[in-house]
Amino acid sequence: MSGTPPNHKVTQLNRKKMSEKEQERLAMREQRRKRGLRRRLTVIGIVASIVVIFAGVGLISQYSMIQANNNEKVELQQQLEELEANENRLEREIMNYNDEDYITEVARKDYYMSKPGETLFQLPEQEDEED
Question: Is 11 left (phi over 0), alpha (psi -120 to 50) or beta?
Answer without folding.
Answer: beta
